[in-house]
Amino acid sequence: MTEQVVAVLGRGVVPRDTALLLADDLGFTRGDGCFDAARVVVRDGTPRVDHLDRHLARFARSAAALELPAPDQDSWRALINEALAAWTGTGEAVLKLVLTRGPEHSTSGTTALLTITAAADATSARQGVRGATLSRGYASDAFRDAPWLLGGVKSLSYAINVAAKREAVRRGVDEIVFTSSDGYLLEGPTTGLLVAADDQLWTTPLAGTGVLESVTIGVILDAARAEGVPTQEALFRADDLPGTDGAWLVSAIRGVLPLVELDGVRLPHNPQLSAHIAATAGFR
Amino acid sequence: MTEQVVAVLGRGVVPRDTALLLADDLGFTRGDGCFDAARVVVRDGTPRVDHLDRHLARFARSAAALELPAPDQDSWRALINEALAAWTGTGEAVLKLVLTRGPEHSTSGTTALLTITAAADATSARQGVRGATLSRGYASDAFRDAPWLLGGVKSLSYAINVAAKREAVRRGVDEIVFTSSDGYLLEGPTTGLLVAADDQLWTTPLAGTGVLESVTIGVILDAARAEGVPTQEALFRADDLPGTDGAWLVSAIRGVLPLVELDGVRLPHNPQLSAHIAATAGFR
């Protein structure tokens, strides 16, 4: 069985087979809650969370967008530390933080818990992934002035993302890249999109597109600017990618995945550039 | 505390404060599951479920769209009967059936449970509701040939529906009517749309729109046809409604709610027609 630590805010680490949620928890019945996920890596014998400050900040933004109480940073950090201390895995793992509106028919307040789970091996994906585009159904400006559509919110309502991953399997590809109804590449179901072109790094604009801000792309772009490489936001079409220097799907957990093929078209792939970008985000 | 019965498939009725779900249940972490909800009413001293066959059939269609195992009808019916026998409420109640893909990191299979919970009083809403339109962000044909968008699937990923209800409160109205990006009325976050015009009854087409099939509208349209009233599907704009004989937001739980105002515009309302339509679906 996959190794796992489970911990509950206000309660601490619990046995992993502990049932924790009531049948009417709104995170369960409505997907009415948010989460965030970060990579846990063992460095110098100690498990550490990559870019925890940024993940906690995004978690707080998701909670605010859902009008949930702001996560108490000190309590979460203490719980994370307790869970890391209980973590005995040696490979890469996923820290997942979850906050929901809580049980619908009681006054017990929000549900707040975390899990640390051994990560699936991403070695192969880090060498290159083949992708297919799927329409996300929205125009690229659909989320402008429509906060109820929860654009950019890492909510628990991820059924479409999961369905898209099933569609990837059906199409015989590794990854999906969602497109807008007006034909732009947006993001993957659990990845952001990074493009190298014209000696710059590019990612999808957030405003209007509903795209989730990628913590790892943020780290990569900060590192690029520190190296003097300009960074910009732009919407690309699938047809644009063969003329670029490369594209990557970026995940906090799986890392920087070179998109070597999209809808059957080979894309430029520079392994040295990939390795450099991945290293700036802490991936080897 | 709101009266509630909780029951688990394969286990039966459990105390309502029983924690049932693991932290990594995919229904919880991904909204990766489906539900259905029907009204429970006490008739002749016995609690009964309205239109249970239709709700079970829709539940099975939702499960199929999510590629979940087909719900075993006999087991669910037995569990529902056990829960009804334990139900001591005398007013209207909600039966909710939930099926998820189960815990991500164990082999225990799907999670399947139900709740019966006392319903909020819908007396006032049945007299008339004021609505506001909100964009759902999708064009009215966005779901055509895009099954991964889960159009018409009653999934657990309902965070946008919940956010829309918060927006209704903020706008000082009772109900939201979602519109397509091309300006058509679709449905409410938890209601379907019914319109009377030209001596016919109309509802939103399902194909392409992503609209959930309403069990209660299905019952109403069947009754109308039996009375010789033609029924049709059509897309209406908000501007069309003042020229009709009336519009209703229809819920299996709350009933047939006359939409007496939309975006501040008064709409035609014939209380006798409303009462007749409501009665055909079992609402008084």
Largest protein-protein interface: A-B, 62 and 62 residues
The helical percent of chain A reads 10-25%
The oligomeric state of the chains shown is homodimer
Per CATH, the superfamily of the largest domain in chain A is D-amino Acid Aminotransferase, subunit A, domain 2
CATH structural class of the largest domain in chain A: Alpha Beta
The helix/strand order of chain A is EEHEEHHEEEHEEEEHEEEEH
Morphology of chain A: globular
CATH third-tier fold name of the largest domain in chain A? D-amino Acid Aminotransferase, Chain A, domain 2
- What is the count of β-strands of chain A? 15
**CATH architecture title of the largest domain in chain A:** Alpha-Beta Barrel
| Measured distance between first and last alpha carbons of chain A | 27 Å
Which regions of chain A contain 5 or more consecutive residues with pLDDT less than 50? none
Q: Into how many domains do the coordinates of chain A divide?
A: 2
**Biggest sheet architecture of chain A:** 9 strands, mixed
In terms of DSSP E residues, the strand content of chain A is 25-35%
Radius of gyration of chain A: 19 Å
How is this structure best described in words?
The structure is a homodimer of 284-residue chains. In chain A, strand 11, helix 5 and strand 12 form a beta-alpha-beta unit. Chain A has two domains: 115 residues, Aminotransferase class 4, branched-chain amino acid transferase, N-terminal domain (D-amino Acid Aminotransferase, Chain A, domain 1), CATH 3.30.470.10; 156 residues, Alpha-Beta Barrel (D-amino Acid Aminotransferase, Chain A, domain 2). Chain A is built from six helices and 15 strands. The model of chain A has no long low-confidence stretch (mean pLDDT 97). Chains A and B meet through helix 1, strand 5, strand 6 and helix 4 of A and helix 1, strand 5, strand 6 and helix 4 of B.
